[in-house]
Amino acid sequence: MSPIETPRSAQAGTVESMDCLVTVTASGGGRRVEISGGGTSRFRDVMEKKINQVLDGLGERENVTISVQDNGAVDLVLGARVEAAYLRFREAIGE
Amino acid sequence: MRRTMLYLPGNNPNMLLRGHLFGADGLILDLEDAVARSEKDSARVLVREVLKHREFDGCEVTVRINGLDTEFWRDDLAAVVPYGIHGVRVPKVETPQALANIDDALSAIESAASVPVGATKVFCLLETALGVWNAYDIALASPRVTAIIPGGEDLAADLRTSRSKEGVELEWARRMMIVAARAAGVDALDTAFPRVTDEDGLRRETEFTKQLGFDGKSVIHPNQIPIIHEIYDPTEAEIESAKKIVAAARDAAARGLGAVSVDGRMVDLPVVRRAEFTLERSGAMTERGRA
Known about the structure:
CATH architecture of chain A: 2-Layer Sandwich
Number of helices of chain B: 13
Shape of chain B: globular
Radius of gyration of chain B: 20 Å
Oligomer: heterodimer
CATH class of the largest domain in chain B: Alpha Beta
Strand order of the largest sheet of chain B: 1-2-3-4-5-6-7-8
Number of strands of chain B: 10
CATH architecture of the largest domain in chain B: Alpha-Beta Barrel
Number of strands of chain A: 4
Number of helices of chain A: 2
CATH class of chain A: Alpha Beta
Number of domains of chain B: 2
Order of helices and strands of chain A: EEEHEH
Number of domains of chain A: 1
Largest sheet of chain B: 8 strands, parallel, barrel
Structural class of chain A: alpha+beta
Order of helices and strands of chain B: EHEHEHEHEHHEHHEHEHHEEHH
Strand order of the largest sheet of chain A: 1-2-4-3
Helix content of chain B: 40-55%
CATH superfamily of the largest domain in chain B: Phosphoenolpyruvate-binding domains
Strand content of chain A: 25-35%
Structural class of chain B: alpha/beta
Radius of gyration of chain A: 13 Å
CATH topology of the largest domain in chain B: TIM Barrel
Helix content of chain A: 25-40%
Largest sheet of chain A: 4 strands, mixed
């Protein structure tokens, strides 16, 4: 076993109003998207589409779980937080 | 017009998305002091997306990048310049050489992004004694420079003093800024008033800096905007008087006369220029054309 544990997750965003907190975690069995928060039931499809669009654009190959804690983030904020979290994740795992 | 330019923290979606609703003449999307070092990357992406997707109701939109002594400023420029901002605010400019570095970086990004080279203007924050001393040379160092702005807290610290209620420690730097800006043909914009609940203090300081000649002031809270606008906006009486002066000057010019008298006062070129400036501020000149 390696003496140094490789970081396996990264976050971006906040839980403030109009923002969201995005956590990216390594996972082996395909990309998973988890969304929680106030407007989730109404906007889940739109949010999932945006998240997948951003991850596809960044070349993500379905090896992560994305958890979004939403507090009223509009599309562009969600996309920005997913991008920042994913880029931090890649940096953390040394890619 | 640059009566007010409102700072918006670059990592705060709420302020970035609503900032244009407060009626400031300009917005400053801030990637520098308002953003913690650990959040620079995230704020940069957020500000880029806001610039890409949002309209700002005619506000002049600028981004305050991180200082040239940091590892962030080139990435900041690369993220925001392609999206058609009016300008960048550059902190702690001290020498004309700094403008050469900014100019080169901006030109490369503009060129690659099909933005007309030179379109992105530069607002120079002069936050050290050396920067203030070099104000005129900095203002002339690049045609991109459109305004110079004295520092507040940083400048006071560099002068080995602190900010007082009366602002006496910044007075000389402010006067210097006006002379340098006018000599170089750029705007002089004042630093923000830091005490957001002190309306009387803001009013006093703005009246003073307007009288010195400043074109406007940075703002750190939306409540400061109407107070500053009220001080900068010409009164009805000033507008009427200015209209009379401009009309008399046109009439005199048409009749081949030099100075004329309006309400018992001699009207010569400096008076006409001041009247035109008053009408510009009131918006009337845009309808009437220049005399």
